[in-house]
Amino acid sequence: MPSYPYRTTREDLRVPLPDGTELFARLWRPVTDEPVPVVLEYSTGRLTDWTATDDARHHPWIAGHGHAAVRVDARGHGNSGGVAPAADGPAAADTLAADGAEVVRRLAAQPWCSGRVGLLGTGAAGDTALRLAALAPDAVHAAVVVCPDGPHRLGGAVLAADGHTRATDRLADAARPPDPQYVGDGWRAMWLARLDALEPPLADWLAAPSPDVPAAAVPTLAAAGWSDPSAATVLALAAAGGAPAVRAVLGPWPHGLPDELLPEALRWYDHWLRDIDAGALAAPALRSWHAGHWSGVDPWPPPGLREVHYGLDGPLRAAGTASEDRWVHVHSPQHTGLDAGAYVPLGRPADQPPDQREEDGRSVCFDSRPLPEPLDLLGTPSLTLHLQPAAGPALIAARLCAVAPDGTSTLLTRGIRALAGRADDPAEAVVELAPTGTTVPTGHRLRLALSSTYWPWTWPGPEPAGFALDPSRSTLTVPVVHRPAPHADDLTFRSPTLPLPPPLHLTEPLTAHPERVTVHDIGRREWRTELSPATDGTRTHPDGLVRAEQTVTAYRVLTATPLSALARTDRTVRLERPALGWDVTVHTRAELRCDPTHLLARTQVRAEEAGNVVFTKEWHHRIPR
Fold first, then answer.
1. What angle do CA 578, 584, 588 make, to 5 degrees?
2. Distance CA 390, CA 539 (A)
3. Alpha carbon distance 136, 99 (integer Å)
4. Which among 421, 424, 553, 585 could disulfide-bond with 392, CB atoms 3.0 to 4.6 Å apart, if both were Cys?
């Protein structure tokens, strides 16, 4: 066991809410007679199984350094009481934040607490932490948010890559029962109440506009990986910095809380919760992983940031454009986008987009000459296209790649813009690309690749006609900086020595699916892709819980038929406690199709106890695009 400044204790407790609901919580405390601040992680994850391994590594480490660490299951999740909010839009976020504010008030009032609370959140819990900070400003003094949830629409286009998978995850989380080892014989009544209150979140989530990025209401440390969709949120928080203080970190990480960030989070909490000056505010506004090393920029955006403009009929040029036609027509096959990689990268090899040459071949490409010197990009590129008036809705997918002398095409960033196809649409369309921080080497070429579909990241438009642009009045703008110098060694990120996680035995399935498989049925002109996540398999926890999961996500589209697109996720979760004779299974399925004006959703849930069905329900929704 590693040695820390404080010995720690752990206990489970319940936090009452004003309506009588009790939330299940786990508390790690440093052994001291002095009141200490609290770091709260408040999540819809289940702390006794789904997040148990990470909780057992991160929270004792935080407690061992002088802060009480509290992990709380949200209403209707895990071993907490109540039922989950029915919707997955702003109303649900507000309910979560309101409950969290009550948790903050009760923790701050404990005799062992100094009255100061810091928030910690990853993914959806990061977004909740930002909203919660705005509701409880008196007690909340700091926040650390990692990969906070981003928008579900990209430039007005509806995401296909995250919608149905998110629906099955959220529905399975809400449909799983509490654990009888922690709640006793009342687990079944609690479970049936949850099942009766179930409403699939997919329709509300897709129908609602993407929420605005919550502002930082307290001093906030925000972090993500460059390839995570939340990178734009992190940069937006940094750009709005000032008062309160905001520091941002963009690293070479997949989605999730990296171990390397924990010492920086501790410095942040020490500064704002314990008045210990460990140099947290001396860090630059943005630290980023750039060209193989850490570098810093202060302020963000920096005064020296230059915007370099590439005209699409000069510095970037398409091959094969007919001289008598000033319009370049973009009309892509419907499977363009199969090599996009994962929308939310989780660190597996198939998450990263491969060589883009096949995608480039399905797109219209504008290439630069070989670069005479390295080009250092840092920030958010944008594309302005002068378009021919559209006869109907269309989609613009833009990819920026670096092409090596041997022809290898490496994706740097990308962006999406959906066009309504109305008569009053502007002639110019601006496509904002995702942030990037990278160096394009000498001798490489920049390539802008345009396509009229990007499946399965976004739903295809109703018509396959594509769009046309005038290169002479279209421009790519990229943010360029002088090559950032490596940061001082004491501000780089290193993994701390964390407690060993509890022993977790993993039994992998004998017929495990590959991470990602794509099949081209030539006769049907159909493309099918199947994905299997890393969570598949059976895990036996130290307390005797056996948790088995299997998930398969599938996409299908016909090459020339946009309305053939289909996305489906099947998820099965089984929980067993052999010593108690407890055996429950939850099956969820979400399937999405489309017609010219709507997305058509079919969602199913089936719950079983000891193999006997105790609940089943199916929902059908027709959601405007």
1. 145
2. 53
3. 11
4. 421
Task: For residue 572, list its beta bridge partners.
Answer: 550, 587
Contact assessment for residue 33 and residue 40, using Cβ atoms and an 8 Å cutoff: no
Q: Can the peptide bond before residue 299 be classed as cis, meaning omega within 30 degrees of 0?
A: yes
Please check the confidence at residue 544 and state whether its pLDDT lies above 70.
yes
Amino acid sitting at position 19: D
Residue pair 357/408 in contact by the 8 Å Cβ criterion: yes
Query: Model's pTM, two decimal places?
Result: 0.94
Give the list of residues 6+ apart from residue 361 with CB closer than 8 angstroms, or none.
none
- Cβ-contact 419, 438 below 8 angstroms: no
d(CA 365, CA 398): 10
Amino acid identity, position 34: E
pLDDT confidence band for 389 (50 / 70 / 90): confident
Question: Which 3-state string (H, E, C) describes 156-196?
Answer: CEEECCCHHHHHHHHHHHHHCCCCHHHHHHHHHHHHHHHHH
Across 366-392, b (16+ Cβ under 10 Å) vs e yields bbbeeeeeebbbbbbbbbebbbeebee
**Helices then strands (H, E): number in the chain?**
10, 34
Which residue pairs from 88-95 have beta carbons closer than 8 angstroms and sit at least 24 positions apart in sequence? 88/170, 88/201, 88/202, 88/204, 88/205, 89/204, 89/205, 89/207, 89/208, 89/211, 90/208, 90/211, 92/201, 92/204, 93/127, 93/128, 93/131, 93/211, 94/131
What is the spatial distance between Cα 507 and Cα 486, in angstroms, rounded to a whole number? Answer: 43
Give, rounded to a whole angstrom, the gap between the first and last alpha carbons of the chain. 54
Cα–Cα–Cα angle for 464, 465, 468, rounded to 5 degrees: 140
* Token pair listed for 104: 């903050």
User: Strands of 36-43's sheet, edge to edge?
Assistant: 8-16, 22-30, 68-73, 36-43, 113-122, 140-146, 220-225, 246-251, 286-290, 293-297
Give the integer Cα–Cα distance in Å for 564 and 460. 9
Give the model confidence (pLDDT) of 144-160 as tens digits.
999 998 666 678 888 88
Pairing of strands 286-290, 246-251: parallel
Tell me the one-letter amino acid at 157: A
Which residue has 């599938």 as its token pair? Answer: 554
